[in-house]
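Retry 2 of 3 after timeout on previous attempt. Resubmitting structure tokens to design endpoint.
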């Protein structure tokens, strides 16, 4: 079978924010898709879902751009949805399907998705077998839709693997996180995060390539881990498992709530590709009961007990009498590991690592083998390791090592000792610390011309000292590392940036008045205080908006749209429409910093904007032919203008073309009746004029500035 590839998008809980979710998904899909499937690992619906939105959903009035599958978490399905899917076999509307309680779905691309809905209630995990005398369900249990039980997990683990398909599943979708997922990981999670032990055992049994869970409302992309086997008679999967925990959709703390990736399903991937393990792969993290599948809460059987109760993970243990059967029992007692001991090879308690059924037998009394032709470097004699060398005691240094001849300490300019041993080093370090603190205080006052509070906010958010650049910590990328902040007009680390023009700073975007603006308070016909010609600039350095990494692109675009909406409402109050244009073209040195230019246009002059751009395009050296969509190639250069009538015009700039960067200004300057202001260099302002315009615009924009909330 030919190898197929598919694109998958996974999200956390939406909690009823259906319109917002699918609008954001549409944005991701248009910029980074098309995706084949969308998976929701949390509560798609909320406790107080809007009935009108639910009816619109069922009646296909909400556009769902990707085939979407969802499970339930801690919130029951709204009755309107529950009744509908019972009649439609899980289909809510076009492209939206409820997976159900548990099972394995195979998509059209051959991707096998295992799923388990509901929360873990330890006290009720085995309670489904407990019924009243007349056979009625136990009334003390929560809504059965909202929890899973042991038979669900056992049934899912027992799902057979299709013939000729490697062991495991492609994706596991659960609401609960597995207990112990942070073990052996460098990732930090809150101490209060416990997770569910049955989910750990489910992940061990299914051996998924990807595992998504949404309950904890946190983002965690754990290092891949190796698997240890899928159960009795099931082989160990050669692939690694990647666990991803996801936050809530649109959460205020901007915790990442989506994850996108490409994959080739197990049914078609080359077996050799499954054996590749990333450098950061860890061992299997979960601590499983020695008899996998026994009731949770039962005590773990001791190693060496009765054969019926002393089985290892996935099957029977030693023969009757324990691992050392045939003796008087004293060796069993001596060799039994403590209750807290866990084998480092298979991560299962109940036996020592040297007795692990997953590893070769080792004779503890045998001497440790030495590499072939090994020679001790201390005595130049074979037959023993360097740490066991009888000459080791005679080779210990009796005095500190002296520096080589000619070595001079750079602190005191004297010989005889290394820099780290200099008696003046401590005094030098104290002086540097005081000097550095003083310099920081001085620089913070001069650097921004803003209040200390704003400076500290920007400093804590954007500065990465090793790279000597400023950008959000989570967006530091090779693109950030490849440019010099001092050479970029829009990077906040550049001391030459006109920070007195900055109007508002968001989390991803900042708003500033333009240098040499088309409209200013002194220009004729200006209706907006301060002129209104502004720039929207991502705080991180990227040559174009399309080069922003997908994992943060949605947050950048969302804040960009909030700024646009705020400006549009402000302009409307002064009788103006808004024109936004962008030139996306990366310079050879990578110094281009993406930005949008926003210009207010009196409403009475808006009608002829589209025709004006088209006509001006015909007069250029290279005749411009506009389209309505951006180029498919993310590296392509283009000019784009968004007009008040919701029309967008796009011109794809050809390689090596000498495109006039002032094109957008030329058109708008003519519309405004000020063609002499087409070039920004012809519109200089003094710093006092810039400060007055910035303050005037700030005052007018204040009621629309969402960053002040």
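Retry 2 succeeded. Sequence:
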């Amino acid at each position: 079978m030919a190898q197929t590839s598919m694109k998958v998008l996974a999200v956390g809980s939406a909690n009823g924010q259906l319109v917002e979710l699918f609008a954001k998904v549409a944005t991701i899909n248009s910029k980074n898709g098309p995706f084949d499937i969308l998976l929701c690992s949390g509560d798609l619906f909320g406790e107080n879902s809007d009935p009108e939105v639910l009816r619109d959903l069922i009646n296909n009035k909400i556009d769902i751009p990707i085939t979407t599958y969802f499970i339930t978490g801690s919130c029951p399905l709204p009755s309107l949805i529950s009744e509908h899917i019972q009649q439609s076999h899980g289909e809510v509307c076009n492209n939206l399907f409820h997976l159900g309680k548990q099972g394995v779905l195979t998509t059209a691309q051959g991707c096998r998705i295992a799923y388990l809905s509901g929360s873990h209630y330890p006290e009720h995990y085995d309670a489904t077998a407990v019924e009243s005398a007349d056979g009625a369900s136990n009334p003390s249990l929560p809504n059965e839709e909202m929890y899973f039980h042991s038979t669900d997990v056992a049934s899912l683990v027992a799902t057979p693997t299709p013939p000729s398909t490697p062991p495991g599943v492609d994706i596991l979708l659960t609401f609960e996180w597995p207990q112990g997922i942070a073990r052996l990981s460098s990732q930090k999670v809150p101490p209060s995060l416990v997770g569910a032990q049955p989910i750990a055992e489910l992940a061990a049994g299914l051996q998924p390539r990807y595992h998504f869970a949404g309950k904890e409302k946190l983002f965690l992309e754990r290092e891949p881990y190796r698997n240890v086997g899928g159960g009795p008679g099931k082989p160990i999967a050669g692939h690694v498992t990647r666990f991803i925990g996801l936050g809530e959709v649109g959460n205020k703390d901007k915790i990442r709530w989506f994850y996108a990736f490409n994959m080739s399903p197990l049914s078609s991937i080359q077996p050799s590709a499954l054996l590749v393990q990333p450098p950061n792969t860890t061992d299997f993290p979960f601590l499983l009961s020695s008899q996998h599948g026994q009731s949770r809460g039962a005590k773990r059987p001791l190693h060496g007990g009765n054969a019926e109760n002393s089985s290892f993970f996935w099957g029977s243990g030693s023969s009757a009498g324990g691992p050392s059967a045939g003796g008087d029992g004293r060796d069993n007692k001596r060799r039994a590991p403590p209750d807290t001991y866990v084998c480092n090879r298979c991560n299962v308690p109940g036996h020592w690592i040297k007795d692990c059924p997953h590893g070769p037998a080792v004779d503890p009394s045998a001497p440790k083998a030495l590499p072939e032709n090994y020679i001790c470097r201390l005595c130049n004699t074979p037959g023993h390791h360097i740490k066991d060398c009888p000459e080791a005691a005679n080779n210990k240094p009796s005095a500190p090592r002296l520096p080589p001849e000619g070595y001079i300490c750079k602190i005191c300019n004297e010989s005889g000792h290394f820099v780290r041993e200099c008696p003046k080093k401590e005094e030098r370090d104290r002086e540097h610390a005081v000097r550095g603190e003083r310099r920081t205080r001085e620089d913070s006052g001069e650097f921004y011309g803003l209040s200390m509070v704003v400076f500290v906010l920007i400093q804590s958010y954007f500065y990465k000292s090793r790279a000597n650049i400023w950008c959000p910590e989570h967006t530091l990328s090779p693109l950030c590392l490849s440019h010099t902040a001092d050479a970029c007009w829009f990077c906040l680390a550049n001391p030459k940036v006109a920070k007195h023009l900055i109007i508002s700073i968001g989390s991803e975007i900042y708003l500033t008045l333009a240098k040499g603006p088309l409209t200013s308070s002194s220009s004729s016909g200006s209706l907006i205080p301060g002129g209104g010609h502004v720039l929207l600039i991502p705080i991180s350095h990227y040559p174009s908006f399309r080069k922003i990494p997908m994992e943060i692109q949605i947050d950048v675009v969302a804040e960009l749209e909030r700024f646009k909406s705020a400006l549009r409402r402000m302009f409307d109050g002064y009788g103006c429409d808004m024109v936004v244009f962008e030139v996306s073209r990366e310079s050879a040195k990578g110094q281009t910093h993406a930005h949008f230019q926003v210009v207010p246009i009196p409403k009475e002059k808006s009608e002829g904007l589209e025709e004006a751009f088209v006509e001006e395009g015909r007069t250029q050296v290279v005749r411009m032919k506009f389209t309505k969509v951006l180029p498919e190639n993310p590296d392509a250069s283009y000019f784009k203008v968004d007009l008040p009538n919701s029309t967008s015009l796009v011109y794809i700039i050809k390689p090596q073309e000498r495109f006039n960067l002032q094109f957008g200004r030329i058109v708008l300057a003519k519309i405004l009746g000020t063609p002499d202001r087409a070039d920004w260099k012809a519109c200089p302002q003094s710093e006092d004029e810039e400060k007055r315009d910035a303050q005037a615009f700030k005052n007018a924009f204040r009621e629309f500035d969402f960053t002040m909330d």
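Attempt log closed. The CA atoms of residues 686 and 692 lie 10 Å apart.
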